[in-house]
Design a protein that fits this description.
Layout (H helix, E strand, L loop, with lengths): L2 H25 L4 H10 L3 H7 L13 H8 L1
Helix pairs in contact: 1-2
């Protein structure tokens, strides 16, 4: 196999881990975008997500950009 094949395999694996991270985070009531990004960039972080307990209560919500701007000034 040449280098291009390894790059394609790594890319497919990273995309699959990102999707798996988003799906698993949704099932565990965690921040989906955070875990999807870390699952894509660093696939072993999915092991941490698997070990975390399900979050009780409402799903964490990130403040909008307007809310962040109001909080700073």
């Amino acid at each position: 196999m040449d280098a291009v094949a390894y790059i394609v395999i790594a890319g497919v694996f990273m995309v699959a881990c990102g999707i798996a991270g988003a799906t698993l985070a949704g099932a565990k009531n965690r921040d989906v975008s955070f875990w999807a990004a870390w699952g894509f960039l660093l696939p072993p972080t999915l092991l941490i997500l698997v070990l975390l307990r399900t979050n009780k209560g409402p799903r964490p919500r990130r403040p909008s950009l307007d809310e962040e701007d109001r909080a700073r000034f």
